[in-house]
Amino acid sequence: MIIQFKKATKRFGGLAALDNVSFEVKKGEFVFITGPSGAGKTTILKMILGELVPDSGEVIVDGTDVRTIDSKELPYFRQKIGTVFQDFKVLHERTVGENVEVALAVIGLSQNDWEERVKHVLKLVGLSKQINLFPSQLSGGELQRVSLARALVVNPKILLADEPTGNLDWDTSDAIMKLFEKINEEGKTVVMATHNVEILKKYKKRVIHIEGGKISKA
Amino acid sequence: MSSIHLKTALDYIRRSPFQALAAIFVLSLTFFVATLVFVLAYSSSQLISYFETRPQVIAFLKDDATEDEVAALQHRLEGDTRIKEVKYVSKEEALSIYKKATSDNPLLGELVSPSIFPASLEFSVNDLNFAQSIIDEVKTEKNVDSVGFTAALGGESSLKDVVGRLRTITMYVRVGGLIFTGILALASFVVLLITISMRIATRREEVEILNLIGATQGFIRSPIIIEAFIYAVLGVVLGWIIAFTAILYLAPSAVLYFGEIPVLPRDTLSLFALFGVILGVELVSGFVLALSGSLFAISRVRRSR
């Protein structure tokens, strides 16, 4: 198991964002986390990323209990996880190529090895021609591909996606989903939070449904 | 990896050039003044050293003193640890000094003969606090006719007053210079702090993204610290160049005014060595200022989990 939630609970004030949640994700699995807004989907992703720690219970990611990670180890822990967000979170002052290069600089890869990896990953997401463009010159779908390329270029063990198609039309969403599926087929574990029913219908993957901080279907 | 940080830092500077200019201007002003204060401190210490090492006391010898007695007195003075550089000046040498001093009016020199000038023993004291007691002791020597002082500035009656006054002026120059430089350094620190804090505020989204993709704090901070270092280096070098140019421009007048007193090094190599040392010290100070300013600004941004 690459991800394990064992009776994990997280409260914000008096409100339980997650209440005694337990589930597991196998290595190489593609899992959808669904539920209405405020159900706790993003809290789960933030816990996997080590951004939040459970008040009680355990969250174990790739053999590491997130509660035991100190602030100095946290960046290295996160380097094993790729992230894609609804709002893309790209660096607006950098070109497509530079956005991807930043991730390689973060993991400390030698600059000599950047070019080949950047070209490979941009080809994979279909952005080879846009390498020197700035985010302001790209469409929503292209921005999401930049975000995906940045996540993939460091060869992460897990790919987290928080509503990656939330700001995209169906055709673009479908294209992005096909990319995620392709990446999953290559062996990457994908955990995607979404409430897009059409995507859930088309892509038959395991679904963890959460509502009011509790899992109703796993 | 460092090139990406340098590129990022240069990007920040390009994006807000007026903030950068403000920081560089204040730092330049600080190090311009600091360079002048350094040079003033050097010149004043040279000035004091010059006066302190001049023959300060002259013991005029009686005409009937024999060579042996004079030699014995000279030997005794040389053995005194409070006294340095004892020199015997014969009557002939005294006349020569007089003629040189009155060279603009040769007639004065022609009217005198060596016999009217007393031979003397000239010497300096290591510490002017001992001057009076030494003078009193030398006055009691049987071969000494009288004792006099060579320096007289501003009408002071004693050498101690002269050097004391010089020391006071020097102290005011140094303390005043240090306080002024300190105030400017504080202003530089604040401007640097504001510039870096504004940078951090505008970088908030970028920092959030970098945190999410696993950037270490060192990675996130590096461009900010490099930016501060760029300001410091430019500020130091600009301030130093302006001050150096101004001093080179004024040096001939200063040398002319102070005559043989070496308020500035006379040879080019020593002059460049002095300014090299000043530049080195200022670069280190600039780095400390940049590092402390940027780290202090960064420390204001706390992350919670």
Report on this model:
Chain A: This is Cell division ATP-binding protein FtsE. Chain A: Keywords: ATP-binding, Cell cycle, Cell division, Cell membrane, Membrane, Nucleotide-binding, Transport. The complex is a heterodimer of chains A (218) and B (305). Chain A has 218 residues and is of the alpha/beta class. Chain A has one domain: P-loop containing nucleotide triphosphate hydrolases (Rossmann fold, 3-Layer(aba) Sandwich). Chain A is 33% helix and 27% strand. Chain A is built from seven helices and ten strands. Chain A has helices at residues 41-48, 74-78, 96-106, 114-125, 140-152, 170-185, 197-202, and strands at residues 3-12, 15-25, 30-34, 56-61, 64-65, 81-85, 158-162, 189-193, 206-211, 214-217. In chain A, a hairpin with a 2-residue loop joins β1 (3-12) and β2 (15-25). In chain A, α3 (96-106) runs parallel beside α5. The longest helix of chain A has 16 residues, at 170-185. Chain A starts with a strand and ends with a strand. Chain B is an alpha+beta fold. Chain B folds into two domains: 1-51 and 161-303, no CATH class; 55-149, Alpha-Beta Plaits, CATH 3.30.70. Chain B contains ten helices and four strands; from the N terminus they run ααβαβααβαβαααα. Chain B has helices spanning 2-15, 17-53, 67-79, 91-101, 106-110, 131-139, 159-202, 204-212, 217-258, 268-299; strands spanning 57-61, 83-89, 120-125, 144-149. A four-stranded antiparallel beta sheet of chain B has the order 2-3-1-4. In chain B, α2 crosses α10, α7 runs antiparallel to α9 and α7 (159-202) crosses α10 (268-299). The longest helix of chain B is centred in the middle third of the chain and has 44 residues, at 159-202. The radius of gyration of chain B is 30 Å and the shape is elongated. Chain B starts with a helix and ends in a 6-residue tail after the last helix. Chain A binds chain B through residues 49-53, 71-72, 74-81, 83, 89-91, 93, 101-103, 105-108, 111, 150-151, 154, and chain B through 1, 3-4, 11, 15, 205-206, 208-217, 219, 303, 305.
